[in-house]
Amino acid sequence: MKIKIVVPIITNVFNNEIIREANQFKSQDTEVEVVNLDKGTASIESNYDEILAGPDIVKKVKKAEEDGFDGVFIDCFGDPAVDAAREVVDIPVVGGFQPAVLTASLLCKKWSIVTVLKSVVPMIQDLCRKTGIMDNVASIRDIDTPVLELQDKKVMQSRLLVQIEKAINDDGAQGIVLGCTGMLGLAQDLQNEVSKKNVYIPVIDPTAAAIGFLEQLHRSKISHSKLTYQRPVEKERNFE
User: What is the 3-state composition of the chain as percent helix, strand, coil, each rounded to the nearest 5?
Assistant: First the structure.
C-alpha cells in the first residue's frame, strides 16, 4: 500500500519526525510519502487557518490519487478539508480526528482529548458534535502550547501529563486522545507513566490511528460512500 501524508502547513519542520512516526506504526509492506502545502499557513489553530489551507489540501489529495497512492492521511487533528477531499477522489482520505476518537470509542466509555490551545477547543467540540460522540467526551483540555512550539519534547510531555492526570482524576476520563498530530512520539511513554499510577489507561496517538485505519480500509477494499461524499458538479471555479 502507498499512503500520501499531506501535512497541511507551509513549513516542513515536522516532516522528518512525521516520517519516523509513520514508519513506526505502518505495516512492513506499506510505503509512506510526505508533502507540505505550497499555499496556506504555518500551523492550523483556527477556522481561519483551516479555510486558507483548504484549497491546496484538496489539490494535494487529488494529485496523490493521480500519482497512484492508495490512501491519504491529512495530518491534522482538525480534519481540515477531509470532507471536501473525499468528494473529489475515490481513494480513502482520513484526518487525525475521526480514526483517533472512533478508536477511543471501542476502548472506553468516556475519554478526554488533550490539545494544544484553547482556541482550538471550539473546533474540536464542533467535530465531536458532527461525529456524534459528545456524550462520550469527558473533557477537552489544552496544554497552552502553540503547534510550532511542540518540538521541545520534555516540556510537551510534562504539560501533557499534568492535563492527562487532571482529565482522569477530575473529569472521569477512562482513556486519552492526543488532540494534535504534532504531539509526536509521546503516546506510549505517557500511557506507561499514567498506567503506573492507575490501572491501564489507553493513550491514543492520532497518527498511529490514522495509518492503521487507512491500512484496514485498503485491506478490506472499501472507501467512503459516494452517496455521502458526492462528486461536485462541473462548473467554473477560479480559486487556483
Answer: 50, 15, 40
**Main-chain phi, psi angles of 92, to 5 degrees:** -60, 140
Instruction: Please say if the pLDDT value at position 1 is more than 90.
Output: yes
Side chain identity at residue 106, one-letter code: L
81: left (phi over 0), alpha (psi -120 to 50) or beta: left
Tell me: do 88 and 106 sit in the same domain: no
Verify that 136 and 192 share a domain, yes or no: yes
124 and 74 within one domain: no
Q: How many residues does this entry show for the chain?
A: 240
Is 128 within a domain?
Answer: yes
Q: Model pTM?
A: 0.95
Q: Domain range holding 109?
A: 97-206
CA 230 to mean position of chain CA atoms: 23
Other beta carbons within 10 Å of 238: 4
**Interval 171-214: pLDDT, tens:** 999 999 999 999 999 999 999 999 988 799 999 999 999 999 99
CATH value at residue 62: 3.40.50.12500
**Alpha-helix runs per DSSP H in 67-172:** 82-88, 97-107, 121-131, 153-171
> If DSSP codes are grouped into helix, strand and coil, which group holds residue 201?
coil
In a domain, 240, yes or no: no
Model pLDDT for residues 51-64, shown as the tens digit of each residue: 999 999 999 999 99
pLDDT of residue 45 exceeding 90: yes
